[in-house]
């Protein structure tokens, strides 16, 4: 039976590319989404990948959502924690809600999804968890104390859980994308983005499929000896 992978935020942007790359490897994919049902239906029509709606920042919703995936597709062997939001602004203008939403969804989502799936992976003696961090979690970024803290937290979370999973055949790794040409990056004001791109040695934004290739590798059998690591895919913007 083919392995089952849940990709959070898996119906658009980097998540869509990851869902497609894992499907190409022969896995059965559940693409989680939080937003628009019509768009999710269009994604399923286009790709043949089942979409499941829940908020990764809601602990119980993750437990229920993963149980639903298991019932429909089989137990979850692979989790890609990709769902994330930005609420950018300098600290002086950042509200508690802006801080809390980003921590709850970007970092809390990783905890919630691991709680929902790690036990089953342990029982079956095999699992892959790939967490999507960020260059901005490694290097920091003006106007992103919330996002940088959450993404930096993801890197610590990855290294700690990797130690717990190793003896059960579960690898836990992170990818730290740089600036990728998705809606999230398109929301950065053009003059600000121009200055950022000027500092990327490769001289351009990345593409979603360039992140997805890394995820696919970390989920494969070939990557069984890689755990607790962070793969930076950022065009040389930050060498870490
Ligand atoms: N370093 C130092 N100073 C900076 C700066 C920087 N990187 N960026 C802006 N400033 C300064 C400006 O020069 C300006 O100074 P003055 O007031 O002295 O002129 C001041 O900060 C205010 O700048 P803005 O006019 O831009 O202020 P704003 O309040 O309108 O916007 C902001 C602030 C929301 C943070 C805006 O600058 C912004 O959106 N920055 C981009 C943040 C970013 O890169 N987000 C990444 C989103 S994509 C993502 O997160 C994916 C991923 O993983 C990579």
TrEMBL record:
Domain of life: Bacteria
InterPro entries hit by this protein: Acetoacetyl-CoA_reductase (IPR011283), KR_dom (IPR057326), NAD(P)-bd_dom_sf (IPR036291), Sc_DH/Rdtase_CS (IPR020904), SDR (IPR050259), SDR_fam (IPR002347)
SUPFAM superfamilies: NAD(P)-binding Rossmann-fold domains
Record keyword Oxidoreductase present: yes
Keywords (A to Z) from UniProt: Oxidoreductase
Family matches, as CDD domains: BKR_SDR_c
GO CC, alphabetical: cytoplasm
One protein family per Pfam: adh_short_C2
Single Gene Ontology BP annotation: poly-hydroxybutyrate biosynthetic process
GO molecular function: acetoacetyl-CoA reductase activity
Name assigned to this protein: Acetoacetyl-CoA reductase
Annotated source species: Sphingobium baderi LL03
